[in-house]
């Protein structure tokens, strides 16, 4: 068939919906993997991973997933091999990647605090500041970030890539390290002290620039970002419904630490209203008895998957 004929056939197939556009989504393999898949589940997307495959299944025919290490994600997104993906801000900086940061998503393997890349040395080290690193050896997984830090401070030092167990290298295998930490407890356990912070990092949803200029892909990416942010907004929150007499409503409302103004609806009985609101989950155990004392009945607590603000 001639070239023009192929184009006509392809156009006909697309019109009939046989060939669909696809969004290539990168899922971070490793420490963020299970948390990311759980977050997508709450957003309404079920992702199933086969231990033998790097291509997870997702229940959206317009999305194709691929497992990629967070350390490499931004490079593949920048090149357009992957349209969008989730990775840490630190790895975007480490790879010096030119990508679109669609959303900041503060989540991790365990906690919800930003991670820090810090410069650490043995507790008894004479190194007190960046200037003291002159001529020293630094071990780290973030080589590019560390070299830029040294350049900014006008320091000449050797930077060696660390394949892991970086905390055990000083003082015998390195004079200092640049390592990622959340609380610093692992560093303290290895008798290391922090002398500077190079970077604070949170998870980012990133996209390829060309993908963001494609109407289909941009719409799909923005939809994912909206739902993922809504999932994180709902963490630690619950919905609360109750019925109460109008005469007792003011006292009850004074007890409610609402996300926004509670919704108050008139019930069939003219002197009763229904109240619907969102509160922090940890306050409910003390809040329910207080509401009962205010005259509330029919109190229902329900879980939330998403809050769109």
Number of helices: 9
The helix/strand class is alpha/beta
Q: Give the strand order, joined by hyphens, for the main sheet.
A: 4-1-5-12-6
Overall geometric form: globular
Query: Percent range for helical residues?
Result: 25-40%
Question: Which whole number gives the mean pLDDT?
Answer: 89
Order of helices and strands: HEHEEEHEHEEEHEEHEEHEHEEHE
Largest sheet: 5 strands, mixed
> What is the rounded Rg?
26 Å
Strand content: 25-35%
> How many β-strands, per DSSP?
16
Task: Give start-end ranges of low-pLDDT stretches.
Answer: 1-15
- For the termini, the CA-CA separation is 53 Å
Question: Can you put this structure into words, describing what you see?
Answer:
With 309 residues, the chain is of the alpha/beta class. It has 9 helices and 16 strands. It has helices spanning 3-15, 33-43, 70-79, 89-95, 143-152, 185-189, 215-234, 249-255, 284-293, and strands at 23-29, 47-48, 57-58, 63-69, 84-88, 100-105, 115-122, 137-140, 158-161, 176-181, 192-201, 203-207, 237-245, 263-266, 272-280, 297-303. A 5-stranded mixed beta sheet has the order 4-1-5-12-6, sandwiched between helices. It has a 5-stranded mixed beta sheet with strand order 9-8-10-7-11. A hairpin with an 8-residue loop joins strand 2 (47-48) and strand 3 (57-58). It is globular, with a radius of gyration of 26 Å. It starts with a helix and ends in a 6-residue tail after the last strand.
């Amino acid at each position: 068939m001639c070239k023009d004929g192929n184009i006509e056939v392809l156009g006909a197939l697309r019109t009939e919906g046989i060939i669909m556009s696809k969004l290539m989504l990168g899922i971070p393999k490793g420490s963020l993997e299970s948390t990311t898949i759980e977050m997508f589940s709450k957003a309404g997307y079920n992702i199933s991973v086969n231990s033998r495959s790097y291509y997870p299944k997702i229940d959206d025919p317009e999305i194709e997933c691929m497992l990629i290490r967070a350390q490499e994600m931004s490079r593949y997104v920048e090149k357009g091999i992957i349209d969008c993906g989730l990775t840490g801000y630190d790895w975007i900086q480490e790879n010096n990647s030119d990508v679109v940061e669609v959303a900041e998503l503060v989540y991790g393997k365990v906690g919800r605090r930003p991670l820090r890349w810090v410069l650490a040395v043995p507790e008894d080290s004479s190194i007190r500041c960046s200037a003291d690193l002159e001529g020293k050896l630094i071990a780290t997984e973030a080589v590019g970030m560390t070299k830029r830090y040294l350049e900014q401070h006008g320091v000449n030092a050797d930077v060696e890539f660390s394949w892991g167990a970086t905390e055990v290298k000083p003082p015998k295998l390195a004079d200092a390290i640049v390592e990622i930490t959340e609380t610093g407890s692992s560093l303290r356990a290895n008798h290391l002290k922090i002398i500077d912070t190079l970077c604070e990092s949170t998870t980012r949803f990133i996209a390829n620039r060309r993908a963001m200029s494609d109407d289909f892909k941009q719409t799909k990416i923005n939809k994912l970002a909206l739902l993922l942010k809504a999932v994180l907004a709902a963490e630690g929150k619950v919905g609360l419904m109750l019925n109460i007499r109008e005469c007792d409503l003011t006292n009850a409302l004074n007890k409610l630490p609402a996300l926004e103004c509670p919704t108050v609806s008139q019930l069939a009985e003219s002197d009763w209203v229904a109240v619907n609101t969102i509160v922090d989950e940890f306050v409910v155990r003390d809040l329910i008895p207080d509401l009962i004392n205010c005259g509330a009945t029919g109190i229902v607590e329900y879980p939330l998957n998403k809050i769109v603000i």
